[in-house]
Amino acid sequence: MKPAEVVKDWNGFEKFVAHLHQGSEVTVEHNKTLRGNSGATRQIDVVITHKQGPYEYLTLVECKYWKKSVKREQVDVLWASIQDLNAAKGVLFTTKGFQTGAETYAESKGIKIFVIRELSDEEWGRPGRLIDFTFQIFQKMVLNISPLVIGVSGAQSTEPVSIRIALGSSEPSECIVVSKHSKDHPSMESIVDYYSTEAMMSLKSKSFTINGGEDCTRYFIKPMNLNFPDPLIIKQDHSLYLISSVNMNIGIKIAQTNINIDRAQKLSYALAVVDCINRQVYAVSKAESAPLSSWTPLSGNPNSLDDVLQNGSIASGVIEGYFDPAEIVGLTPVIFDEDKMKIVPPADVNA
After folding, report:
1. All domains of the chain, ordered by start, with CATH?
2. Quick check: 263 pLDDT over 90?
């Protein structure tokens, strides 16, 4: 947020600066008139009194809610007040900055000078105060597994046969691979899981939004044909099956959510305070439920753009395992054409 969103005029700015210094160990007074050693009265925007045992320390704070940079003359006036009132410290706050001569003079007199300004995106933490991106969660399901069996225990057959494949089961597989493919996949379940995951990850890598990024859940079908030039041999019960190919349809579920967050939503204010002498930047903020402000020194090395998610981008994750096929009963599945990157008319797929 900008300073103008927090205060509307010079008096509001003085009260805001006074509020920034409130705490249990100090007394903060706004628009205080004090009489100096010279006998002259001096109006001070904010007076901070710190008492410790028999000792009392005064800090004088001047506030310049101006449209131009503060000159050396204004710093000199504060220095005169510090001397006349025997103050321990002097501080000057503004929203527009200081001329070079003012900075040099303030540093020579030990006067702190600060600029209050809007926090940058880097200071909020990338991607900035506003966070807006699409988050998608992918999960798979395997439908209609049809192995083409070219031999059963030595007999020839060109008709698909029913082979029991227990996807997602914690029980040991009853469909063991005994051909050379077992080096990578010990069971038929392993083969199906590997290639169904590959299909899901291929779709995930395309990085697209559904319906403009609205919150929704959509289901897609990805047909797959696995060919085995060297026949796959599996053992189930007491039979051996020679398989030349496996046709299957991979169901892919995408749960999409739009993430839209204003980091200042629960804050009364959040601004940057720049120490113009020490070149240190602080984030000063107050939660709506908190009585006092919080000061946090900011690092001078914000993350690069490569390290963070950018607004308008898509983030995604994967849920392991399979979703329940009952979720798509009664729905019309759509085929995702991976090559053309568009949805094409649905084929006949049994859920």
Report:
1. 3-117 (3.40.1350.10)
2. yes
